[in-house]
Amino acid sequence: MHDLAFIFAGFFVGFVVGLTGVGGGSLMTPILIFFFGIKPYLAVGTDLLFAAFTKMSGTIKLARARSVDWRVVFHLSAGSIPAALVTLWVLHVVGPASPQVQAAMTTTLGVALLLTAAATLYKALRGKAAPKSVAKGFEVAAARPLHWSLPLLFGAVIGTLVTLTSVGAGAIGVTVLMILYPRLPLARIVGADIAYAVPLTLVAGMGHASLGSVDWPLLAKLLAGSIPGIWVGSHLMAHTPDRVIRSLLSLLLAYAGVKLISI
After folding, report:
1. Which in 14, 93, 182, 261 has the greatest CB count within 10 A?
2. What pLDDT digit, counting tens, does each position of 163-186 carry?
């Protein structure tokens, strides 16, 4: 019975990701902790690889459509991947299952969910603020950040957040990109966000696997549900009121965030 519940949870998260574009970690990790009683370190480690595999197919599709700005991906990865490796080293030294790390993970996860809720609400209300296209010959200028150091700094913050909580590379990442690259079209912002999340979650997920923080049978069940879920959600995206769904989702994430902080 539990097997079917995990597959259904994977389908639900995949469906919401396909429908709204909100990162799966924002939903999957709290579901695993609250509904299934999975230890936070196992929930985070398993969800990181879950995110890597689900976003990989999306990245391939976007790359074929030439919707990924690889310069932006490189800028963020230069900050986030080293930060992920440093965070993994700290987890290795302290021990991912220690009570202190578990407490830090749930509190940080709660804060990350509150940030994601705010970012999701911001996108729902101001989602059309980014330009829809770039004039020919201005592609390189549009891919320049407000300052060269900002992608490294924000990338490091997101890399640490994602490695500790599996949350941050979705709605938070898109909001950060909208601020850092104001001239970049929304479609290319989303493409860059999905693409840079793949190496980050893969590095962080494999690092957690080396620490014994990944439940491989659970991962297989979640993926079995999420792949068809993403397909169904992405096909229904055009027929649903985006702002209403994102607003409701932000309330759900805020509730989960507050509950985690108060544990």
Report:
1. 14
2. 988 887 776 777 788 888 888 877
Each residue's pLDDT tens digit, 106-116: 888 888 888 88
Q: Give CA–CA dist 167/29, Å, rounded.
A: 8
- Tell me the CA end-to-end span of the chain in Å, nearest whole number: 28
- Cβ neighbours of residue 59 under 8 Å, at least 6 residues apart? 68, 194, 195, 198
C-alpha span between 231 and 17 (Å, rounded) = 10
Secondary structure of residue 41 in the 3-state scheme: helix
Compute the distance between CA of residue 154 and CA of residue 177 in angstroms, rounded to an integer: 9
Among residues 19, 55, 50, the alpha carbon closest in space to that of 234 is found at 19
Q: What is the pLDDT of residue 59?
A: 82
Cα 21-34-234 angle, rounded to 5 deg: 20
Of 61, 58, 49, the residue nearest 227 (C-alpha)? 58
In the chain, where are the structural domains located?
Answer: 2-261
The answer to whether the predicted template modeling score (pTM) of the entire model surpasses 0.85 is no
Helix (H) or strand (E) holding 130: none
As given in the structure block, the two tokens for residue 22 are 């909100």
Asked if 45 and 205 touch (Cβ cutoff 8 Å), the reply is yes
The predicted-structure confidence for 228-253, as pLDDT tens digits, reads as follows 888 887 777 656 666 766 677 777 77
Phi-psi region of 240 (alpha: psi -120 to 50; beta: other; left: phi over 0): beta
- Cα gap 200→212, rounded to integer Å: 18
